[in-house]
Amino acid sequence: MVQISNEDYKQFKRLLFSIGYRMLGSVAEAEDMVQETFLKAYQIDDQKLDNKKAYLCKIMTNRCLDVLRSAQYRREHYVGPWNPEPLLQESTHDIDPSEVVLQKEGLSVAYLRMMEHLAPDERAVLLLREVFHFSYLEISNFIEKKEENCRKIFSRAKQKISSIEGESLNYEKNKSLIDRFIQAFQMQNIDALLELISEVVTLYSDGGGKVNAAVRPIESRSNVLAFLYGIFNKAPEDFSFKVKKVNGQPAIVTFVNGKVQSIISFYIRDDTIKEMYITMNPDKLPTY
Fold it and tell me: Which residue intervals define the domain RNA polymerase sigma-70 region in the entry (predicted)?
């Protein structure tokens, strides 16, 4: 038996992690799925395989679909809003996230959060087609559905997440906006904040029942600002923050006693902050 080699592992692990993270919104789960995929693939006689990449992606996709289906119950009983695990690109994992981001598309927190509105098959087809540019024939082989069905699934998924289209992914431009937001927030410059934040902005605070967080989305500019000022007015003396690259976009990473306390990500469209995502669940934050 000729097994998939260590060279194949080095060649394809980044692609598989990239699929898994976008499918699941979790670094740890994506890494686990990569390992499971290769464990299964190592047992296959690859002389029978016409395309190692396609075979590995098929295993990975179906592993992730199984996880998504089993996770639906957990998602439904999650305490408060659910945000995807932030991908802080300075993190040190066995698979370095700073090296695995093969494309910027489909990586933002806003995009990943919108994926939660899709059924597992819809999520798989949309990502494989729109982000990873697999053909419908390849996708149909991955998920074992007819090619025409995959086209219909893709169209249905696109309609469901159409509201996210138009998101700005220009890092430098978005960082400038976030820097201005921070300055205006610190100076309590209401006029500047009114220009930067949408009147109908929504904030999703994810504490997962592990730390204090809003259990429902906070809507409207006045309520969001009041919530943020309430947090920062209660911050301890050793509180600090930095703007870092998270999921390919600028985000505010806050620290208490040198440890990450929260990560604040943004959905920016038309030079305006439309949504904010505060992740405080310690299970989703780096521990260094």
Answer: 9-72
> How far is it, in rounded angstroms, from Cα 149 to Cα 119?
14
**CB burial string 88-113: b at 16+ within 10 A, e below:** bbeeebebebeebbeeeebbbbbbbb
Q: Is pLDDT above 50 for 72?
A: yes
State the Cα torsion 144-150-153-158 to the nearest 10°: 130
Residue 104 near residue 169 (C-beta atoms within 8 A): yes
What is the pLDDT averaged over residues 33-41? 92
Give the pair of three-digit tokens for residue 212. 């204090």
CATH of 171-284, one of 3.30.230.10, 3.20.20.105, 3.10.450.50, 3.40.1160.10: 3.10.450.50
* Mean pLDDT over the full length of the chain: 89
Distance CA 36, CA 113 (A): 25
Tell me the average pLDDT across 39-62: 82
May I ask the CATH architecture of the domain 6-164? Up-down Bundle (1.20)
